[in-house]
Amino acid sequence: MILKMTPNIQIMKKSNEDLPLDIGSQIILKNNQFLVINKPPGLGIQPDKTGNKSLIDFAEIYTKKKLFITHRLDRPVSGAVLLAKNSDCAASLNEQFKSKKIEKTYLAIVKIAPAMKEGALLHYLFKNEKINKSFVADKNSSNTKKAELKYEVIAQSDNYSLLKINLISGRHHQIRVQLSAIGSPIKGDVKYGARRSNKDRSIHLHAWKISFQHPISNEVVDVVAAPPDESLWNFFIQSTAL
User: Fold this and answer.
1) Taking the model in full, what pTM does it have?
2) Which of 4, 5, 95, 230 is 20 to 30 A from residue 221's alpha carbon, by CA?
């Protein structure tokens, strides 16, 4: 089963006040077990200190029932988010994440392309809780976590490169810090080395595809979330037929 969503989401402004309460237009797939939402950048997954409504708030308003978060995307990141509709489904999906049976593919736009057109990155990361930022450690230790991903440069323009990233592990800010570590920070990600922020405070990182096993039928479900309707994303969508 493969599902795609056409680009109909708007880039978020400084807060999520402009997001319509009806989040139905962002839903890619829904059934009685789970739903997949194409999260706009700038929207948090769950309530935080800002006091703004979050993705889970809007989704529960839409479904009129309690939902379960199975994984997270950073606030400035867009793309596919999988929410469970009951505790049994949540347990099944959480186990799939834990055993690395769920495949996640991201798209990232960078100003400085990696030296190699494709490759694998392995780093040991540690998180500074006070500033909510992860760093690459010089060596493995009890305070670090192993982070792995594979990347491929799939398109280039005069000024930017589009990377496809297959996430192997799931660490805090992993893609952001690992790309920064090789000199290829994500466009707009000033926290990890980009020279300029995006006007809307988004970053050009998008959770593009997610593949998982249906908790009841065991059918493999592949979901594709279209990148935001924005000029640079649109250029690469048109040039690569994503």
Assistant:
1) 0.89
2) 230
